[in-house]
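Deliverable D5.2: sample structural annotation.
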Amino acid sequence: MVLNERCTTNEDQNGNAEIHRLAKFIKQNAIIDDWEVIKIIGAGANGLVIRVKHIKTHKVAVMKIAINPATSGSINWEWNILEKIMNPKNKEDRTKHLVRRIDYGYTFNMDKENISYIIMEYLPGNPVSIIGLLKGNQLLSKVAEFGLQLLKAVYDLHCLGYIHRDIKPENVGLYNDNILVLYDLGLARFYTNQNGQIREPRCLCGMRGTDEWASLSAELGRDQGRIDDLWGWFYVLIEWINCASKYPLCWAPFDDYPDLRHLCKSSIFPAKYVLRNCPPEFFKIQVSC
């Protein structure tokens, strides 16, 4: 068995340098159009995530801003998805469990290049902070409650013709500690064509998502479909059940060893290790998937 090792490429280093330069530039300016920068709360391959406050209304929100014109495409794509989620012509309301947009615009980066940003609602809560305090039947009941809400979010996104491709605990927020909302749609992709028919899968398209919560098929670079979102949903539920553990998912210790992680996710690996501490109904879900 060959075990892969992590390495940092020149491309990674250059990307990190750009992120740091953008973060420094934004902190120095502190104002982007009508929004005041409160705190930079995250960074990714395409840009920064910032907690902001509207200058006039004082409404707190989240801004995603691109690094440069090349990464603005991802921001524009996410805006299009958010616009479709909030389309009043939808057959039913898709906004309860999917993040909502507030604003959209353009500004300049540290190199005076035109870049895009989007403003979305701020979701300060997370299910883990609530589930982690519970035990026994109370824990199972709360996991079931949040799990059904997350499943509704996935269902709503699928009804609009998209797959998420990055479902994980970090991409879930809460309203008032009881209404779950799925966000971070930057990796979402159409799985249907213009006629509403399911697109033919590509032979090999590369990994999209986060290794720990991705399906085995996705990790192997195969084209993703709705089933891969459901695997992500299922892994999130397992993690919630075991959130008090150092390793909520049994493959978590093998972060640097993808071959071992793939084995744990395969059909030949005993389900009792994957579903430790889970109720019997989880075994039925795994068989269905």
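Annotation notes: Confidence is low (pLDDT under 50) at residues 1-13. The chain has two domains: 13-121, 127-284.
The annotation will be released with the project's public dataset once the embargo ends.
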